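Good morning C.,

I know you're traveling, so I'll keep this short. The sequence:
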Amino acid sequence: MTRFTLLAALCLMVPSSGFAEDGDDMDFLDFEAGEANRKARANERAPAGSTFLDEDEDETLPQWKVSKVHKDTRSEDLDEDEPMLRAHMEDEDEDEDEDLDGDPMEDFTPAARASLMRPLADNYPLALVARVHEQITVELPVLVSQSSEDFQGEDYWLVAVVLVNGTPISEGRHLITQNIISAFGPTTVWFKLAVPVNGPEAEVEVRVSRSPARGGRTEALFQRTILVRK
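The tokens, ready to paste straight into the viewer:
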């Protein structure tokens, strides 16, 4: 009886031990499957920020290279543009030279230009100021003096004769005396002359001269000409 009981107990223990061993094997398989699933899910997730901090510095070098290449490219662009910039500067220098070669009087104010003019000289242009039917009017200023020192003390006539196509038509006169000379600045007189004009065009000329008021030889000073067209 005792042996039978011991044998029965032994039989009951053998399946339980086998089941336990089988259970241990299943637990091992379940652990490996769980570890594999955990790694797969970890790979699918975005890497952590620390992963970028742990990367090698060489992987960040292309960003610095891009910045350096951009700088070098900009330098090359400046080098390519340098001939154009130099040519532009040379053009500006030429323009400045042309301005210097032009009439320097144009850079002065009217008062400054007047202060540099020589009395009784060809200082002003002859201007067409009116046209009525077959008649025109021309105007010509004449600088008499810059100051009282330019007047020599002898009265004289300042005469302007107007010619049309070489034929004298009319004249104008100003008597220049000490009384009309300004003591504090320039003195100027204006000739305003009207003449008839026939034909499609005409050459109008004004000749200016000086004659002593008490008689004497007439001195030619200068002349101006314009071409008038209908």
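Safe travels,
E.
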